[in-house]
């Protein structure tokens, strides 16, 4: 499964600084971008966990499962804005 980092999620976008759109719309766009990024991280953690299980790395697999669960919880929480 191939993933790409959502545009602006990993770097500094103009929206993060309130440039271009402004106001509430910019905050909503930034929140959506952050959710996309957390979803991307959750997907990658799940892939890494599968690899750790295949390598019989139980501790690593468990840590990745914990991180994946945290990412899933973040996706369910309302934005802090």
Question: How would you characterize this protein structure?
Answer:
The chain has a domain at 33-81. The protein is 63% helix and 0% strand. The chain has helices at residues 23-54, 58-76. Helix 1 packs antiparallel against helix 2 (58-76). The chain is elongated and about 50 Å long.
List the helices and strands and how they pair.
Blueprint (H helix, E strand, L loop, with lengths): L22 H32 L3 H19 L5
Summed up:
The protein is mainly alpha-helical. The protein contains two helices and no strands. It has a domain at 33-81.
Descriptive tags:
81 residues; mainly alpha; 2 helices; 63% helix; elongated
* Unreliable residue runs: 8-19
* Class inferred from helices and paired strands: mainly alpha
Average pLDDT works out at 78
Q: What's the SSE pattern?
A: HH
Outline: elongated
- Portion in helices: 55-70%
Q: What profile does the largest beta sheet have?
A: none
Number of strands: 0
Radius of gyration: 16 Å
**Strand content range:** under 5%
Q: How many alpha or pi helices?
A: 2
Euclidean distance between termini CA atoms: 32 Å
């Amino acid at each position: 499964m191939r993933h790409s980092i959502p545009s602006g999620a990993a770097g500094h976008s103009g929206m993060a600084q309130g440039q271009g759109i402004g106001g509430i719309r910019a905050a909503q766009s930034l929140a959506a971008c952050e959710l996309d990024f957390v979803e991307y991280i959750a997907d990658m953690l799940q892939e890494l966990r599968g690899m750790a299980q295949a390598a019989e790395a139980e501790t690593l697999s468990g840590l990745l499962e914990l991180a994946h669960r945290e990412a899933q919880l973040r996706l369910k929480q309302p934005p802090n804005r």
